Write a sequence for this structure.
């Protein structure tokens, strides 16, 4: 399964009552594929506010986005959690719907050791035929999956990729020793070009909601050998990469990108509690950023 080089971790549009806005979801899918050049969409990942979505909402979203995309891009379902049994259940339900793959986050809060992480992901992969993308994001999970654990998992046939958010150092280590067909994606927009330079395959992105077309151009410039142009595009986009997360002060994803989409005329509503929308100062910063 080739998920492409630019994958967008899609926001979940809500209406004023805080329910999923299906019309806005339809428009967003078209916009991300046609205007922002996403080659795949992660549905119900961190940026999709997965912790606040019920299983019923997630399954509805998987089915709706899959139908709307209609083969124009790959659909990756966020089915990971800190419960192995629950992750298996949701992964199998997503497989029945027909998604192209699943994204499984490192278990959060219960803090398993490296052997526990291996057994968790191996157990889920063993109960599905879908391609699996691992997701290491220690800033959110409080633990990090080590390079040796990732490499052990890469030997499982349907574990095909990882989204790595720890460091370019770890991306380098994984790429240096993983099977040739195992893909490594940067989960940090600002580190995307550096990840490509050390052998990463692409970026699973938040900023691609608003600068995806330029990011796709940057990636294409790099893989075609125009490193100077890729670097120039990265430098141009860097303030957006950093600003959507840092603002004047750190702002939880996806509060900033949802606000930014609204400024661009793509209304996706606001966030569900416990997240909150940008403050007046943050909103002004995001507007200036764009």
């Amino acid at each position: 399964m080739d998920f492409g080089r630019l994958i967008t971790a899609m926001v979940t549009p809500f209406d004023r009552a805080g329910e999923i806005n299906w019309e806005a979801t339809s428009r967003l899918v078209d916009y991300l594929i046609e205007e922002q050049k996403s080659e795949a969409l992660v549905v119900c990942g961190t940026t999709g506010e997965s912790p606040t979505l019920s299983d019923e909402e997630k399954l509805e979203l998987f089915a709706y986005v899959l139908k709307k995309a209609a083969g124009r891009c790959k659909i990756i379902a966020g089915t990971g959690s800190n419960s192995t049994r629950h992750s298996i259940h949701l992964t199998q339900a997503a497989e029945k719907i027909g998604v192209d793959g699943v994204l499984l986050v490192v278990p959060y809060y219960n803090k398993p050791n490296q052997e526990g992480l291996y057994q968790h992901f191996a157990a889920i992969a063993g109960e599905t035929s879908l391609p699996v993308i691992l997701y290491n994001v220690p800033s959110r999970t409080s633990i990090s999956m080590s390079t040796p654990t990732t490499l052990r998992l890469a030997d499982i046939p349907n574990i095909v990729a990882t989204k790595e958010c720890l460091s370019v150092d770890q991306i380098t280590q994984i790429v240096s020793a993983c099977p040739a067909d195992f893909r490594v994606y940067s989960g940090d927009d600002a580190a995307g070009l550096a990840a490509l330079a050390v052998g990463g395959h692409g970026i699973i992105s938040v900023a691609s909601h608003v600068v995806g077309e330029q990011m796709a151009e940057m990636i294409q410039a790099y893989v075609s050998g125009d490193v100077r142009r890729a670097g120039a595009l990265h430098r141009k986009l860097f303030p957006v990469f950093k600003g959507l997360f840092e603002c004047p002060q750190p702002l939880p994803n996806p509060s900033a990108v949802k606000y930014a989409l609204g400024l661009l005329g793509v209304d996706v509503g606001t966030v569900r509690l416990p997240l909150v929308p940008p403050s007046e100062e943050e909103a002004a910063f995001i507007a200036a950023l764009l």
User: Anything to note?
Assistant: The beta strands are 6-9, 40-43, 74-78, 101-105, 132-136, 159-164, 183-186, 202-205. The two ends are 34 Å apart (CA to CA). The mean pLDDT is 97.
